[in-house]
Amino acid sequence: MRSTIDIDETLLKEAGSLTQTKTKKELVNLSLRELIRKKRREHLASLFGSAAVDISQDDVEKMREDEF
Known about the structure:
Layout: H1 9-19, H2 24-48, H3 57-67
């Protein structure tokens, strides 16, 4: 999908430098994946509260599968 958006050039350059991405498209896709990942973790944490949770990586992957 093509879109035209106005992106802060300073942010774009810094993010590209930090991630070593080669294209703007790659950088935007990586950024969106990371945002989604962060928000899913926040959502998961909110379900369990602030108490320590003893779940494995396999459990987390299963929860992700169940979301789709």
